[in-house]
Amino acid sequence: MRRWLYGALVLAGIGGIGILWAEDAPSAGDQWTAPARAARKANPVPADEKSIAAGKVLYLQECRACHGDAGKGDGPSAATLEKKPGDLSSPKLWEQSDGALFWKITNGRKPMPTFEQKFTDEQRWAVVNYVRTLAPRPAGK
Ligand code: HEC
After folding, report:
1. Taking Cα atoms as reference points, which of 60, 112, 52 lies closest to residue 86?
2. Same domain, 53 and 13
3. Which pTM was predicted?
């Protein structure tokens, strides 16, 4: 094989490994942050009684086992997870937009499953609306 071709192939290989590694590397401090574009997405489903009630039913079915009745991350399965579920009842949750929560519920992150297939968009927004009722709303939000 020609020497320059060999060199180019080796360089391409190293570049490929670099890209794979960068995509796999956890983000700073292992914080789970939704991409800005997803976070800007507005919630199209009004947080009315009907949607909150629908979200609650889904939450109790699919989220409670890990996140617990009040969202504190103390559901019956929580102890067996390699990572603690977040505290959905913390006022800090209001630092994240509805779009960011929607994105996290859509995509999940191990051990949290993805709900992209399991729930429709409207169901995921309804769950966001319900989750919002678990944390006290700070003034001005
Ligand atoms: C198998 C357990 C499990 C199930 C089921 C589960 N989660 Fe999670 N969830 C987790 C874990 C663990 C994390 C923390 C993930 C991380 O930080 O990497 C998390 C994180 C989250 C977060 C981000 C919290 C934050 O502080 O940013 C939200 C929101 C959330 N879950 C909502 C839900 C909702 C809503 C459902 C049901 C539709 C659900 N989860 C189902 C385990 C679970």
Report:
1. 112
2. no
3. 0.84
